[in-house]
Design goal:
Elements: H1 6-29, H2 33-56, H3 62-105, H4 120-132, H5 134-144, H6 147-179, H7 181-195, H8 198-236, H9 241-252, H10 258-271, H11 275-305, H12 309-323, H13 327-347
Length: 355
């Protein structure tokens, strides 16, 4: 029976202790992992801007620069949300008045339904059965406002509270990542060199390039699509072009999600009787998405890491399915690192990431 030496037993005990402590730490912070990863992604994305600010204002304290960028990011997220809430609140009175009129007197089908190219007879039949008759309309809205709706509202409220806490923790983490980024990067380089050797630097660089390329390809292109479609909405007479443009920009960051916003915009135009404008919104929107998804995004995302667009798309969609919105950035970064390691294995030499 083999007997371990004292040094071997000490090493095994130390390894076991580290594994137990690591598992315990991961279990403790598990609920906050999304916030931590979001903060890392955001810090990587704005790192060039932080570098510029430090060079432009060399006498500024790191905590001041970190606070400015953290508050700017918070404003960037909260401003569109506040604008949407304000727009929704302004429309709440009109919606309440319409529901009251429907429950008291019924609402006849609008004229634009008859102009639809298909499905008009079915929609008119449903409208007459559920909204034109005041008794049926009252029953419909009572069902919509029943106990199930109250339960869903409570769940939504709990979800918003949870996400608010995560968002606040993300901002706090982002502040410290920006303030202490030099020491954090140095620590990770030391650890990666000890654990992974020379490959650690390449893996880290490839992941950083992938995250930045994904942000350029998803976020910036999505914002561009939103701006273009906001102009289209305004020209075609949408009731709320700016709000719809913001919503389209957010949806366009997720592949194939912008089409849902085009459908909503078309329905809003149909309610005003503008059938031609509704068709034009869908056609123009799909054209913008086609150009962005087939030409601009592959160049921005795949060009930064030499990642084929098929793997970019798999990384995005698979990441969203497993990690939600966070997967938009983690998925392509993971695929980029795996493809880089695969190429090194095939070619037998390290692959230098494109700067």
């Amino acid at each position: 029976m083999a007997v371990f030496s004292s040094d071997t037993r000490a090493s095994l005990a130390r390894f076991a202790l580290i594994a137990v402590l690591a598992a315990l730490g991961l279990w403790i912070v598990f609920s906050f992992l999304p916030a931590l990863i979001w903060a890392v992604v955001i810090a990587v994305a704005i790192d060039p801007l932080v570098n510029w600010a430090e060079q432009r204002f060399p006498k500024a304290r790191p905590s001041v620069i970190a606070l400015v960028f953290t508050l700017a990011f918070a404003l960037l997220i909260l401003a569109p949300i506040g604008f949407g809430v304000a727009q929704g609140a302004s429309e709440a009175h009109d919606i309440a008045a319409w529901i009251h009129a429907a429950r008291g007197h019924g609402v006849p089908p609008p004229a634009w339904i008859a102009d639809l190219p298909f499905g008009n007879s079915e929609l008119i039949g449903w409208w007459n059965a559920n909204l034109a008759d005041p008794v049926a309309a009252d029953h419909l809205f009572k069902q919509a406002g029943g106990a199930a709706t109250m339960t869903r509202t409570q769940l939504i409220g709990i979800g918003l509270l949870h996400r608010s806490v995560i968002f606040g923790f993300t901002l706090l983490t982002l502040f410290f990542l920006i303030r202490d980024r030099d020491s954090i990067v140095a620590q990770f380089r030391t650890v990666s060199a000890k654990v992974l050797g020379p490959a650690g630097e390449r893996i880290g660089q490839q992941a950083l390039l992938s995250v930045r390329g994904t942000i350029d390809g998803l976020v910036l292109v999505g914002i561009g699509e939103g701006v273009v479609m906001a102009v289209v909405y305004a020209v075609l007479g949408e009731p709320h072009p700016i709000l719809l443009g913001v919503a389209t920009a957010i949806a366009a960051m997720i592949p194939f999600a912008a089409a849902a916003m085009f459908a909503i915009a078309a329905l809003l135009l149909l309610t005003t009787g503008s059938v031609g404008a509704a068709i034009a919104v869908v056609a123009i929107g799909l054209g913008v998405v086609f150009v962005a998804d087939h030409f601009i995004r592959p160049f921005l995302i795949g060009g930064a890491t030499r990642l084929p667009f098929l793997w970019v798309l798999i990384g995005i969609l698979g990441g969203v399915e497993t990690l939600g919105l966070l997967g938009l950035f983690v998925g392509p970064a993971t695929m980029a690192v795996l493809v880089m390691l695969w190429r090194e294995l095939i070619e037998g030499k390290p692959e230098a990431p494109v700067a």
